[in-house]
Amino acid sequence: MPNNHRDIIAALAAWYSANSSWINGGIIAFIVAMGRAMFYGGKFKASLIDGLLTGLVAVTSTPILSPVLIRTIELIPGMSGVLTETSELKIELFVFAFIGVVGARALREFALARLRKLSGSTQEGQNNE
Length: 129
Description:
Layout (H helix, E strand, L loop, with lengths): L5 H34 L4 H32 L12 H15 L1 H16 L10
Helix pairs in contact: 1-2, 1-3, 2-3
């Protein structure tokens, strides 16, 4: 049966080859987040949802965070050119794993706190005057 679908298998292999860092990074973030949630006593369904959300956040935010992290490290005095031999894939895998450890719930709480601070409102929705 696989002999009849060589084009589909070749297309899937080419797609995976072109996007393997994103796919592997999303899987890493999912597994780390799910393991973290279950380790701290979470239920399977909640940890599965947290893992999926964390994987999606990691895949969508890593293209922004990786270059920012590299440039920030290279701006430190004495660190110029340190990451030139490090491939960007290794930095991306670090960011994927870091986001997986932090988790979707902590990222959501951080983002909401930051938005509240920027808007000047309290948790009840009233303005600070």
